[in-house]
Amino acid sequence: MAIADIAAYAHLTDQDIEALADELETIRRDIEGSLGERDAAYIRHTILFQRTLDVAARLVLAFSRSRKGWLLGTAALAFAKSVENMEIGHNVSHGQWDWMNDPEIHSTTWEWDMVAVSSQWKYSHNYRHHVLTNIVGVDDDLGFGVMRLTRDESWEPVHLLQPLRNLLLAVIFEWGIALHGVHADRDRYLPDTVRVAEGNTILKRKIARQMVKDYVLFPALSGRRWRRTLGANLTANLLRNLWAYVVIFCGHFPDGAEKFTADVLDKETRAEWYLRQILGAANFKAGPLLAFASGNLCYQIEHHLFPELPSNRYAQIAVRVREVCDKYDLPYTTGSLVRQYLLTLRTIHKLALPDEFLTATADDAPETASERKFAGRGGAVGGLRTALQKGARRRRRGVAA
Protein backbone atom coordinates (compact mmCIF):
# COMPACT_ATOMS: atom_id res chain seq x y z
CA MET A 1 0.00 0.00 0.00
CA ALA A 2 1.45 3.44 0.86
CA ILE A 3 5.12 3.89 1.75
CA ALA A 4 5.93 2.85 5.32
CA ASP A 5 9.75 2.81 5.09
CA ILE A 6 10.80 5.93 3.21
CA ALA A 7 14.52 5.12 3.25
CA ALA A 8 13.95 1.67 1.78
CA TYR A 9 11.65 3.06 -0.90
CA ALA A 10 14.11 5.81 -1.81
CA HIS A 11 17.05 3.33 -1.95
CA LEU A 12 19.01 5.62 0.37
CA THR A 13 20.92 5.00 3.59
CA ASP A 14 20.40 7.15 6.66
CA GLN A 15 23.72 8.83 5.86
CA ASP A 16 22.55 9.57 2.30
CA ILE A 17 19.34 11.16 3.59
CA GLU A 18 21.24 13.35 6.04
CA ALA A 19 23.66 14.43 3.31
CA LEU A 20 20.75 15.23 0.97
CA ALA A 21 19.15 17.35 3.69
CA ASP A 22 22.42 19.21 4.27
CA GLU A 23 22.49 20.19 0.59
CA LEU A 24 18.88 21.36 0.74
CA GLU A 25 19.61 23.37 3.88
CA THR A 26 22.47 25.02 2.03
CA ILE A 27 20.03 26.06 -0.69
CA ARG A 28 17.71 27.48 1.95
CA ARG A 29 20.45 29.47 3.64
CA ASP A 30 21.75 30.81 0.33
CA ILE A 31 18.32 32.10 -0.68
CA GLU A 32 17.50 33.54 2.75
CA GLY A 33 20.85 35.31 2.82
CA SER A 34 20.29 36.90 -0.59
CA LEU A 35 16.77 38.25 -0.03
CA GLY A 36 16.58 41.99 -0.44
CA GLU A 37 15.00 44.99 -2.10
CA ARG A 38 14.64 43.28 -5.47
CA ASP A 39 12.42 40.63 -3.90
CA ALA A 40 10.43 43.20 -1.93
CA ALA A 41 9.92 45.20 -5.13
CA TYR A 42 8.63 42.05 -6.84
CA ILE A 43 5.77 41.46 -4.43
CA ARG A 44 4.89 45.16 -4.22
CA HIS A 45 4.79 45.43 -8.02
CA THR A 46 2.73 42.24 -8.20
CA ILE A 47 0.16 43.64 -5.77
CA LEU A 48 0.06 46.93 -7.70
CA PHE A 49 -0.37 45.08 -10.99
CA GLN A 50 -3.16 42.91 -9.61
CA ARG A 51 -5.09 45.83 -8.13
CA THR A 52 -4.64 47.94 -11.26
CA LEU A 53 -5.84 45.06 -13.44
CA ASP A 54 -8.85 44.55 -11.17
CA VAL A 55 -9.84 48.22 -11.47
CA ALA A 56 -9.21 48.29 -15.23
CA ALA A 57 -11.34 45.18 -15.71
CA ARG A 58 -14.23 46.69 -13.79
CA LEU A 59 -13.97 49.95 -15.78
CA VAL A 60 -14.10 48.00 -19.05
CA LEU A 61 -17.17 46.16 -17.81
CA ALA A 62 -18.77 49.40 -16.67
CA PHE A 63 -18.22 51.48 -19.81
CA SER A 64 -18.11 49.04 -22.70
CA ARG A 65 -21.37 47.98 -24.29
CA SER A 66 -20.21 45.26 -26.65
CA ARG A 67 -19.92 41.54 -26.09
CA LYS A 68 -16.19 41.79 -26.79
CA GLY A 69 -15.87 44.37 -24.04
CA TRP A 70 -17.66 42.08 -21.62
CA LEU A 71 -15.43 39.15 -22.54
CA LEU A 72 -12.28 41.27 -22.21
CA GLY A 73 -13.34 42.71 -18.87
CA THR A 74 -14.39 39.33 -17.50
CA ALA A 75 -11.16 37.64 -18.61
CA ALA A 76 -9.08 40.43 -17.05
CA LEU A 77 -11.08 40.20 -13.83
CA ALA A 78 -10.63 36.42 -13.71
CA PHE A 79 -6.87 36.79 -14.19
CA ALA A 80 -6.69 39.47 -11.49
CA LYS A 81 -8.58 37.19 -9.09
CA SER A 82 -6.26 34.27 -9.92
CA VAL A 83 -3.14 36.35 -9.27
CA GLU A 84 -4.57 37.58 -5.97
CA ASN A 85 -5.50 34.03 -5.00
CA MET A 86 -2.26 32.21 -5.79
CA GLU A 87 0.74 34.47 -6.37
CA ILE A 88 -0.32 36.89 -3.63
CA GLY A 89 -2.81 35.44 -1.12
CA HIS A 90 -1.49 31.88 -0.99
CA ASN A 91 2.15 32.88 -0.83
CA VAL A 92 1.75 35.80 1.57
CA SER A 93 -0.22 33.52 3.91
CA HIS A 94 2.71 31.10 3.89
CA GLY A 95 4.86 33.84 5.41
CA GLN A 96 7.02 34.17 2.30
CA TRP A 97 7.23 37.94 2.72
CA ASP A 98 7.20 38.21 6.53
CA TRP A 99 10.94 39.02 6.45
CA MET A 100 10.03 42.45 4.99
CA ASN A 101 8.28 43.39 8.27
CA ASP A 102 5.61 45.16 6.23
CA PRO A 103 2.34 44.95 8.20
CA GLU A 104 0.31 45.16 4.99
CA ILE A 105 2.10 42.21 3.34
CA HIS A 106 2.31 39.82 6.27
CA SER A 107 0.92 36.36 6.95
CA THR A 108 -0.75 37.56 10.15
CA THR A 109 -2.73 40.36 8.48
CA TRP A 110 -3.47 39.32 4.88
CA GLU A 111 -7.05 38.30 4.08
CA TRP A 112 -7.55 37.04 0.56
CA ASP A 113 -10.37 37.75 -1.87
CA MET A 114 -12.42 34.56 -1.61
CA VAL A 115 -14.84 33.01 0.86
CA ALA A 116 -12.20 31.01 2.77
CA VAL A 117 -10.83 32.58 5.94
CA SER A 118 -7.04 32.99 5.80
CA SER A 119 -6.47 32.05 9.45
CA GLN A 120 -8.45 28.81 9.13
CA TRP A 121 -6.78 27.93 5.84
CA LYS A 122 -3.33 28.50 7.32
CA TYR A 123 -3.90 25.78 9.92
CA SER A 124 -5.38 23.25 7.52
CA HIS A 125 -2.85 23.99 4.77
CA ASN A 126 0.37 25.31 6.29
CA TYR A 127 0.36 22.74 9.09
CA ARG A 128 -1.83 19.74 8.32
CA HIS A 129 -0.89 19.62 4.65
CA HIS A 130 2.65 20.97 4.46
CA VAL A 131 3.99 19.35 7.63
CA LEU A 132 2.05 16.09 7.27
CA THR A 133 2.20 15.92 3.48
CA ASN A 134 0.44 12.94 1.89
CA ILE A 135 0.16 10.96 5.12
CA VAL A 136 -2.86 8.72 4.55
CA GLY A 137 -5.57 9.46 7.10
CA VAL A 138 -3.73 12.54 8.40
CA ASP A 139 -3.28 14.98 5.49
CA ASP A 140 -6.81 16.23 4.77
CA ASP A 141 -5.73 17.54 1.36
CA LEU A 142 -5.34 13.96 0.13
CA GLY A 143 -8.70 13.84 -1.62
CA PHE A 144 -10.12 16.80 0.35
CA GLY A 145 -12.45 14.42 2.14
CA VAL A 146 -14.58 13.81 -0.95
CA MET A 147 -12.42 11.62 -3.22
CA ARG A 148 -10.44 8.41 -3.06
CA LEU A 149 -6.95 9.05 -4.41
CA THR A 150 -5.08 6.04 -3.01
CA ARG A 151 -5.92 2.37 -2.62
CA ASP A 152 -5.09 2.73 1.07
CA GLU A 153 -8.60 4.11 1.41
CA SER A 154 -11.14 1.31 1.21
CA TRP A 155 -13.55 1.49 -1.69
CA GLU A 156 -17.19 2.31 -0.91
CA PRO A 157 -20.17 2.54 -3.30
CA VAL A 158 -20.23 6.33 -2.89
CA HIS A 159 -16.91 6.46 -4.73
CA LEU A 160 -18.75 5.65 -7.95
CA LEU A 161 -19.79 9.31 -7.84
CA GLN A 162 -16.16 10.42 -7.72
CA PRO A 163 -16.02 11.80 -11.29
CA LEU A 164 -19.05 13.99 -10.56
CA ARG A 165 -17.62 15.03 -7.19
CA ASN A 166 -14.41 16.02 -8.92
CA LEU A 167 -16.30 18.21 -11.38
CA LEU A 168 -18.34 19.81 -8.61
CA LEU A 169 -15.23 20.50 -6.51
CA ALA A 170 -13.57 22.20 -9.49
CA VAL A 171 -16.56 24.50 -9.99
CA ILE A 172 -16.94 25.47 -6.32
CA PHE A 173 -13.28 25.19 -5.35
CA GLU A 174 -13.19 28.30 -3.14
CA TRP A 175 -16.15 26.94 -1.18
CA GLY A 176 -14.44 23.58 -0.81
CA ILE A 177 -11.35 25.30 0.55
CA ALA A 178 -13.47 27.36 2.95
CA LEU A 179 -15.27 24.30 4.34
CA HIS A 180 -12.00 22.38 4.43
CA GLY A 181 -10.46 25.13 6.54
CA VAL A 182 -13.32 25.48 9.00
CA HIS A 183 -13.56 21.70 9.49
CA ALA A 184 -9.82 21.51 10.23
CA ASP A 185 -10.22 24.43 12.63
CA ARG A 186 -13.09 22.60 14.33
CA ASP A 187 -10.97 19.47 14.80
CA ARG A 188 -8.19 21.69 16.15
CA TYR A 189 -10.36 23.19 18.89
CA LEU A 190 -12.70 20.35 19.86
CA PRO A 191 -14.00 19.92 22.52
CA ASP A 192 -13.73 23.70 23.04
CA THR A 193 -17.21 24.45 21.69
CA VAL A 194 -16.74 28.20 22.20
CA ARG A 195 -13.72 28.29 19.88
CA VAL A 196 -15.55 26.10 17.35
CA ALA A 197 -18.55 28.45 17.38
CA GLU A 198 -16.24 31.44 16.95
CA GLY A 199 -14.66 29.79 13.91
CA ASN A 200 -18.05 29.15 12.35
CA THR A 201 -19.08 32.75 12.97
CA ILE A 202 -15.89 34.09 11.38
CA LEU A 203 -16.48 31.99 8.27
CA LYS A 204 -20.10 33.12 7.99
CA ARG A 205 -19.05 36.77 8.22
CA LYS A 206 -16.40 36.28 5.56
CA ILE A 207 -18.91 34.60 3.25
CA ALA A 208 -21.36 37.44 3.80
CA ARG A 209 -18.73 40.07 2.96
CA GLN A 210 -17.72 38.26 -0.22
CA MET A 211 -21.31 37.75 -1.35
CA VAL A 212 -22.21 41.39 -0.75
CA LYS A 213 -19.09 42.66 -2.53
CA ASP A 214 -19.30 40.47 -5.64
CA TYR A 215 -23.01 39.92 -6.03
CA VAL A 216 -24.68 42.98 -4.48
CA LEU A 217 -22.38 46.02 -4.24
CA PHE A 218 -20.64 45.92 -7.63
CA PRO A 219 -23.81 45.01 -9.55
CA ALA A 220 -25.69 47.78 -7.72
CA LEU A 221 -23.02 50.31 -8.72
CA SER A 222 -23.67 49.36 -12.34
CA GLY A 223 -27.25 50.60 -12.20
CA ARG A 224 -29.35 49.29 -15.07
CA ARG A 225 -26.48 47.13 -16.25
CA TRP A 226 -26.33 45.18 -13.02
CA ARG A 227 -26.98 41.86 -14.78
CA ARG A 228 -23.87 42.38 -16.91
CA THR A 229 -21.70 42.98 -13.86
CA LEU A 230 -23.26 40.14 -11.90
CA GLY A 231 -22.60 37.75 -14.77
CA ALA A 232 -19.00 38.94 -15.07
CA ASN A 233 -18.35 38.44 -11.36
CA LEU A 234 -19.90 34.96 -11.40
CA THR A 235 -17.88 33.99 -14.45
CA ALA A 236 -14.62 35.43 -13.11
CA ASN A 237 -15.01 33.56 -9.83
CA LEU A 238 -15.80 30.36 -11.70
CA LEU A 239 -12.72 30.69 -13.91
CA ARG A 240 -10.55 31.47 -10.87
CA ASN A 241 -11.93 28.37 -9.12
CA LEU A 242 -11.28 26.11 -12.11
CA TRP A 243 -7.73 27.39 -12.58
CA ALA A 244 -6.83 27.07 -8.89
CA TYR A 245 -8.24 23.53 -8.87
CA VAL A 246 -6.18 22.49 -11.91
CA VAL A 247 -2.96 23.95 -10.49
CA ILE A 248 -3.42 22.33 -7.08
CA PHE A 249 -4.40 18.92 -8.45
CA CYS A 250 -1.52 18.86 -10.95
CA GLY A 251 0.91 19.46 -8.10
CA HIS A 252 -0.37 16.69 -5.85
CA PHE A 253 -2.08 13.83 -7.64
CA PRO A 254 -0.34 12.83 -10.89
CA ASP A 255 1.74 9.65 -11.07
CA GLY A 256 4.88 9.94 -8.98
CA ALA A 257 3.36 12.00 -6.16
CA GLU A 258 3.67 9.32 -3.50
CA LYS A 259 1.59 8.62 -0.39
CA PHE A 260 2.82 7.50 3.02
CA THR A 261 1.49 5.64 6.03
CA ALA A 262 1.41 7.26 9.46
CA ASP A 263 4.31 4.97 10.41
CA VAL A 264 6.77 7.34 8.72
CA LEU A 265 5.97 9.97 11.34
CA ASP A 266 7.48 7.80 14.10
CA LYS A 267 10.75 9.55 14.94
CA GLU A 268 10.83 11.27 11.53
CA THR A 269 13.88 13.54 11.26
CA ARG A 270 14.06 16.85 9.46
CA ALA A 271 16.12 15.10 6.77
CA GLU A 272 13.43 12.44 6.25
CA TRP A 273 10.81 15.18 6.07
CA TYR A 274 12.75 16.79 3.22
CA LEU A 275 12.86 13.47 1.37
CA ARG A 276 9.11 12.99 1.86
CA GLN A 277 8.44 16.37 0.28
CA ILE A 278 10.48 15.49 -2.81
CA LEU A 279 8.68 12.17 -3.23
CA GLY A 280 5.21 13.51 -2.40
CA ALA A 281 4.91 16.45 -4.80
CA ALA A 282 4.91 16.99 -8.57
CA ASN A 283 5.76 19.91 -10.84
CA PHE A 284 4.49 20.92 -14.25
CA LYS A 285 6.53 22.65 -16.91
CA ALA A 286 5.85 26.36 -17.31
CA GLY A 287 7.36 29.46 -18.83
CA PRO A 288 7.43 32.79 -16.96
CA LEU A 289 3.80 33.74 -17.75
CA LEU A 290 2.31 30.37 -16.83
CA ALA A 291 4.46 30.23 -13.69
CA PHE A 292 3.22 33.68 -12.64
CA ALA A 293 -0.40 32.77 -13.38
CA SER A 294 -0.07 29.64 -11.25
CA GLY A 295 1.44 31.48 -8.29
CA ASN A 296 4.70 29.70 -9.16
CA LEU A 297 3.02 26.51 -7.94
CA CYS A 298 4.23 24.84 -11.11
CA TYR A 299 7.25 24.40 -8.79
CA GLN A 300 5.31 22.36 -6.25
CA ILE A 301 8.35 20.29 -5.23
CA GLU A 302 10.29 23.43 -4.39
CA HIS A 303 7.27 24.92 -2.66
CA HIS A 304 6.92 21.86 -0.44
CA LEU A 305 10.61 21.88 0.39
CA PHE A 306 10.71 25.61 1.14
CA PRO A 307 7.14 26.91 1.66
CA GLU A 308 8.40 30.04 3.45
CA LEU A 309 10.79 31.14 0.69
CA PRO A 310 9.47 33.76 -1.77
CA SER A 311 7.81 32.29 -4.85
CA ASN A 312 9.76 34.49 -7.27
CA ARG A 313 12.85 32.46 -6.33
CA TYR A 314 11.40 29.02 -7.11
CA ALA A 315 12.68 28.91 -10.70
CA GLN A 316 16.18 29.59 -9.40
CA ILE A 317 15.79 27.04 -6.59
CA ALA A 318 14.44 24.40 -8.99
CA VAL A 319 17.73 24.21 -10.90
CA ARG A 320 19.61 23.32 -7.73
CA VAL A 321 16.94 20.94 -6.40
CA ARG A 322 16.99 19.03 -9.65
CA GLU A 323 20.77 18.72 -9.40
CA VAL A 324 20.37 17.28 -5.89
CA CYS A 325 17.80 14.76 -7.16
CA ASP A 326 20.19 13.75 -9.96
CA LYS A 327 23.04 13.31 -7.49
CA TYR A 328 21.03 10.96 -5.26
CA ASP A 329 19.28 9.22 -8.18
CA LEU A 330 15.86 10.42 -7.05
CA PRO A 331 12.94 11.08 -9.43
CA TYR A 332 12.09 14.71 -10.07
CA THR A 333 8.45 14.37 -11.01
CA THR A 334 7.41 16.82 -13.72
CA GLY A 335 5.63 16.99 -17.06
CA SER A 336 3.47 19.27 -19.12
CA LEU A 337 0.39 20.76 -17.48
CA VAL A 338 -1.87 18.75 -19.79
CA ARG A 339 -0.05 15.50 -19.06
CA GLN A 340 -0.11 15.98 -15.30
CA TYR A 341 -3.81 16.79 -15.34
CA LEU A 342 -4.68 13.80 -17.53
CA LEU A 343 -2.76 11.51 -15.18
CA THR A 344 -4.68 13.00 -12.27
CA LEU A 345 -8.00 12.46 -14.04
CA ARG A 346 -7.04 8.87 -14.75
CA THR A 347 -6.45 8.25 -11.04
CA ILE A 348 -9.71 9.95 -10.05
CA HIS A 349 -11.77 7.89 -12.50
CA LYS A 350 -9.89 4.64 -11.92
CA LEU A 351 -10.21 4.71 -8.13
CA ALA A 352 -13.92 5.35 -8.44
CA LEU A 353 -14.10 1.61 -9.19
CA PRO A 354 -13.76 -1.30 -6.75
CA ASP A 355 -10.25 -2.77 -6.45
CA GLU A 356 -11.26 -6.00 -8.19
CA PHE A 357 -11.64 -4.02 -11.41
CA LEU A 358 -8.08 -2.68 -11.15
CA THR A 359 -5.12 -4.53 -12.64
CA ALA A 360 -1.95 -3.32 -10.89
CA THR A 361 -1.15 -4.41 -7.36
CA ALA A 362 -1.76 -2.18 -4.36
CA ASP A 363 2.02 -1.88 -3.87
CA ASP A 364 2.94 -1.19 -7.50
CA ALA A 365 0.32 1.02 -9.14
CA PRO A 366 0.86 4.44 -10.71
CA GLU A 367 -1.12 6.18 -7.98
CA THR A 368 -0.29 3.90 -5.02
CA ALA A 369 3.13 2.39 -4.37
CA SER A 370 5.27 1.17 -1.49
CA GLU A 371 8.74 -0.16 -0.80
CA ARG A 372 7.30 -3.67 -1.27
CA LYS A 373 7.18 -3.08 -5.04
CA PHE A 374 10.94 -3.77 -5.09
CA ALA A 375 10.78 -7.04 -3.16
CA GLY A 376 12.21 -10.06 -4.96
CA ARG A 377 14.10 -8.07 -7.55
CA GLY A 378 17.54 -9.27 -6.57
CA GLY A 379 20.53 -7.17 -5.58
CA ALA A 380 21.20 -3.48 -5.83
CA VAL A 381 19.59 -1.74 -8.77
CA GLY A 382 20.96 1.73 -8.18
CA GLY A 383 18.91 4.56 -6.76
CA LEU A 384 15.16 5.00 -6.79
CA ARG A 385 14.98 6.69 -10.18
CA THR A 386 17.01 3.89 -11.78
CA ALA A 387 14.88 1.26 -10.05
CA LEU A 388 11.66 2.90 -11.28
CA GLN A 389 13.02 3.12 -14.82
CA LYS A 390 13.99 -0.56 -14.79
CA GLY A 391 10.56 -1.48 -13.48
CA ALA A 392 8.89 0.53 -16.24
CA ARG A 393 11.02 -1.23 -18.87
CA ARG A 394 10.04 -4.63 -17.43
CA ARG A 395 6.37 -3.74 -17.59
CA ARG A 396 6.71 -2.58 -21.20
CA ARG A 397 8.45 -5.83 -22.14
CA GLY A 398 5.71 -7.77 -20.39
CA VAL A 399 3.02 -5.91 -22.33
CA ALA A 400 4.91 -6.38 -25.60
CA ALA A 401 5.29 -10.10 -24.92
Automatic annotation (TrEMBL):
Give a GO cellular-component term.
membrane
Write down the species.
Answer: Mycolicibacterium aurum
Q: Does the keyword Oxidoreductase apply?
A: yes
- As recorded in UniProt, its EC number(s) are 1.14.19.-
Q: Which UniProt keywords apply?
A: Oxidoreductase
Q: Which residues form the Fatty acid desaturase domain?
A: 69-334
Q: What is this protein called?
A: Fatty acid desaturase
Designated gene of the protein: desA3_1
Gene Ontology MF, one: oxidoreductase activity, acting on paired donors, with oxidation of a pair of donors resulting in the reduction of molecular oxygen to two molecules of water
Coiled-coil intervals, chain numbering: none
Q: Does the keyword Disulfide bond apply?
A: no
